[in-house]
Structures are given as C-alpha cells and as structure tokens.
Backbone:
C-alpha cells in the first residue's frame, strides 16, 4: 500500500513539529556539578598545548610527524577532559558566540561539511536539536534534485512508523520479561566538601579563562576540527553554531549537498537509529488517537484495549485499537490493521490509501 505524493508531503510537513524538542541535550554546568580536579586537568592540558608553540622550532620531517601526533593527542585529551568535566556545552557556546573567531569557525564548519568529515546522523541530530527539522523538510521538498529521494525515504519512514502502530494493534502477545534481580545496596555516600566543587560564581570566570586559553593557544582550528570529527561532540558543537548564528541553514544545506552529505542524511532519516522513528511514531499515534473519538471512548472504557509504543526509549503513546470480537476473528491479521492505519492517515491528511502498489512521484 502506497501513499500519494500529496499525502506524503502533508504527513512529513506535519510530523516535522517533533523537531521542536532537542533529543540530545549538551552537557553543561547548568545540569552538572563541576569538580575542581576536572577543571585543573583541562587547564593543565591547555598549558601543555600552548607549550607546543615554543617547542616547534627547526624540526626534521620525522620529528615534525612526532610533534603533530603528540599535539593532536593532547587536543583529543582536551576534548575528552572538557566532556568529562561537564562544561563542554558552555565552552562550545562561548566559542561560537565570540565575534572575534566566529568567522573562522564558520569557515572550518564549511570545510568539514564540504569534505563530509561530519557524519550524516550527527548533522541530522544537530539540525533537529536546533529546531530546524521542519525547515530541512521544506527545503528538501522544494529541491528538484532531492525531492524524490526525500519522498522515498519518507514513505519508508512512515511505513516503519505504521509497522510499530500495527504491531500494537495486532494484539500480539509477548512474554513478560523476567523479573530483575534485586539491586545491590548502594555504597554509603561520603560527605561532599565545598572544596571539591566549583561554585556557580567562580565557574563562569573559569570558563571564560578556558576559552581565552583556547584562543591564545594558536590551535583553535585544530580544536574545532577535532570536535567536529568526534561523533559525540560534533552534535553539540554544530548545535551551538546553528543557535549562535555562526552558520546559517541555507549555507549548511548547500555545503552538505555539494559533498553528497545530504543524500546520506536523507537515507539516515528512515533509520531506526536516527531517533526520529520513535518520535514520529509517538506523533502519528497521537494524531490517530485524537482523530478517532470512538476508539478513544472504547479505550477509556477498557484499560486493557490500549497499546503503547516504546521504540528507542520513546515515551509510551496510546493508540486506537479495533473493538474486540469473538471467535476466530478475535485475532485480526496484521495486514487488516495495516489497512486501518493507512486509511486513518489518508483520512487525516488527504490522498488515497489504495492498496495498489504504485508511486506517484
């Protein structure tokens, strides 16, 4: 069963509202208590990094390679130390909002996107976290080069969503999970001392110092490149860059298109690992539930008639279920449930839910 193009466009445009909520919060001092020892490690690494400027001098080719390897190792350790300390989000935000280096950072982001150093799932998540998912869908739908690829991915994505919904509608029973073993008693907590943690007042000053040290190190470009090449940290850095206006969406779209990164991004849309699948299932399930008052009433009358969706950690969402029947018809075939969901979506968004397998794009 296929959706007509108009139906797919309507569903994709409507479902893009899930992009309003970030899916991967960036660690920051707002949510993390910061230890002094962790900040000292960051400052020690910055001091070590700055020392490379005085050590370079006249080096042979072999010594130069060893120098670069050591320097890059320190930069990688610095990124890890920032992440472990819990202030990496603050540092990224401060760096990308600094007008003195924002243009340089924008040029680095451009280069990494044009050479596809940043991976498609990370770029997709950063766009999502920045609230730009709907803008991405709209731009792709108006791009004659990529429109059909988006619609094909959208059809696959929505079919996967319907598979989640109809799996619940089918009433298939799964064995109850084995009871979890009793948790081990938590170790006794020792009292925390004020000396171990940095106060909010001091932390802001220390973060400013760290950012200044990064700028003065002479290795801003290397640090940014390392962050963008890191699958975990590239999301946070790109999100900060989007939100602080270091790069604008239209430019990022063009750079990613030139490198072929957009094609990979479109393919990753339908991946169950993208995080969008579970959010989209929640959204569509809620839409179907709201559009079927009779099913909602039946669900309220019989608590057992509702089903929940829980994919990739998504919150459970109630979905409409068919009224129970007696005899052999009590276990409805999955394809009938599939037809019901397609029919409800077609009624909700327009278009045909004909079972004839054809593509209209």
Residues:
């Amino acid at each position: 069963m296929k959706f007509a193009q108009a139906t797919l466009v309507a569903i994709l445009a409507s479902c893009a509202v899930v992009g309003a909520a970030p899916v991967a919060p960036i660690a920051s001092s707002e949510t993390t208590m910061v230890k002094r020892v962790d900040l000292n490690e960051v400052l020690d690494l910055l001091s070590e990094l700055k020392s490379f400027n005085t050590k370079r001098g006249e080096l042979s080719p072999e010594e130069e390679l060893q120098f670069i390897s050591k320097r890059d190792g320190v930069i990688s350790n610095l990124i890890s130390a920032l992440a472990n300390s819990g202030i990496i989000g603050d540092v990224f935000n401060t760096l990308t909002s600094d007008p003195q280096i924002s243009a340089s950072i924008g040029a680095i982001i451009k280069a990494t996107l044009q050479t596809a150093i940043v991976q498609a799932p990370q770029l997709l998540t950063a766009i999502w976290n920045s609230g730009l998912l709907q803008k991405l869908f709209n731009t792709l739908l108006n791009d004659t080069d990529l429109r059909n690829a988006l619609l094909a991915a959208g059809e696959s994505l929505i079919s996967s969503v319907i598979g989640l919904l109809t799996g619940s509608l089918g009433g298939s029973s799964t064995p109850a999970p084995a009871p979890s073993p009793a948790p081990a008693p938590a170790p006794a907590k020792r009292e925390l001392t004020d000396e171990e943690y940095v106060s909010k007042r001091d932390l802001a000053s220390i973060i400013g110092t760290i950012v200044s040290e990064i700028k003065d190190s002479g290795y801003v470009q290397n640090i940014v490149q390392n962050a963008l090449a890191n699958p975990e940290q590239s999301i946070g850095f790109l999100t900060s860059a989007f939100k602080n206006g270091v790069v604008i969406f239209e430019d990022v779209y063009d750079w990613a298109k030139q490198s072929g990164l957009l094609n990979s991004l479109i393919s990753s849309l339908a991946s169950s690992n993208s995080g969008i699948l579970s959010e989209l299932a929640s959204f569509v399930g809620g839409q179907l539930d709201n559009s079927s008052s009779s099913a909602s009433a039946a669900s309220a009358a019989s608590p057992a008639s509702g089903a929940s969706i829980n994919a990739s950690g998504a919150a459970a969402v109630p979905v409409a279920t068919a009224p129970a029947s007696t005899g052999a018809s009590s276990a409805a075939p999955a394809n009938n449930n599939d037809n019901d969901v397609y029919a409800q979506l077609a009624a909700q968004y327009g278009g045909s839910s004909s079972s004839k397998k054809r593509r209209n794009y």
